[in-house]
Amino acid sequence: MLIDSHCHLDFPEFHNDRGQVLERMQAAGVTHALCISVNLEEFPAVVALAETHCNLWATCGIHPDYPDVREASIRDLVEAAAHPRVIGIGETGLDYFRLQGDLAWQRSRFRTHVRAARSCAKPLIVHTRAASADTLAILREEEASECGGVMHCFTEDWDTARVCLDLGFYISFSGIVTFKSAASLREVARRVPHDRILVETDAPYLAPVPQRGKRNEPAFVTYTAAFLATLLKIEAEEFEALTTRNFERLFGVSVAAPQSGVS
């Protein structure tokens, strides 16, 4: 049993063959996946997937790469999170790589998400890129340790990871960890406690080796999981079991393998 802790199955890349993608996911032994919201406008499509498929969950949030979308209030996020299939707040955070200029709006949006997560006691899904110092400062200032969460698609250094762990966050690794250029990230993965590791695809992006360059999909999380198991010198089945337990603990869900063809 393996869980893809972060994917975007509502994205246009999956509109033509989502059913087949879900079938391949189950055939690969990836029993569950968390579908991540990136803005309020498309949140209904994300939650509809989780309502339709019992092995999918949803989150509610606004990604930092979306400057021209409706902002969410704390109340908006808390009300969305009350849906029984919504188990986290995000994707939220800071990204100073793709956008430039005065990004105070990103920091304000991030603070709103942290406050909403604390209010509804659901974990944060945090994106950070080229913004680790400000990300950590806001997590501290807004007392994000009260809700916890996951640093998704982690690509930062060990010092950043250590602070996140100290704040009670989990570290999630995507297919990037399998890339030849990711030697420093692999060193971080070796140091993260086993009870704080998650694994994800971030599909449709960042397909792992040997699928790099293709559209990513939840079935491909098996390659990243196998790679990390080898890196950590543990059996693949043990890695799958521990990441499943970690997901259950963080998101407060109980995972049972779905029946074949469940929708």
How would you describe this structure to a colleague?
There is one protein chain. With about 260 residues, the protein is of the alpha/beta class. It has a single domain, classed as Alpha-Beta Barrel (TIM Barrel), CATH 3.20.20. The chain is about 40% helix and about 15% strand. The protein has helices spanning about 20-25, 45-50, 75-80, 105-120, 130-140, 160-165, 185-190, 220-230, 235-250; strands at about 1-5, 30-35, 55-60, 85-95, 125-130, 150, 170-175, 195-200. The protein has an eight-stranded parallel sheet with strand order 1-2-3-4-5-6-7-8. α6 links the parallel β6 (about 150) and β7. The protein is globular and about 40 Å long. Residues about 260-263 have low confidence and may be disordered.
Number of domains: 1
Q: Which CATH architecture would you pick?
A: Alpha-Beta Barrel
Poorly predicted regions: 259-263
What general form does the structure show? globular
Strand pairing plus helix content: what structural class?
A: alpha/beta
- Strand order within the widest beta sheet: 1-2-3-4-5-6-7-8
CATH topology (level 3) name:
TIM Barrel
Strand content: 15-25%
The oligomeric status of these chains comes to: single chain
> What is the count of DSSP helices, taking H or I runs of 4+ residues?
9
Look at the structure and give the CATH class.
Alpha Beta
Q: Report the strand count.
A: 8
Give Rg in angstroms.
17 Å
Query: Mean pLDDT, as a whole number?
Result: 96
One letter per element, helices H and strands E, the order comes to EHEHEHEHEHEHEHEHH
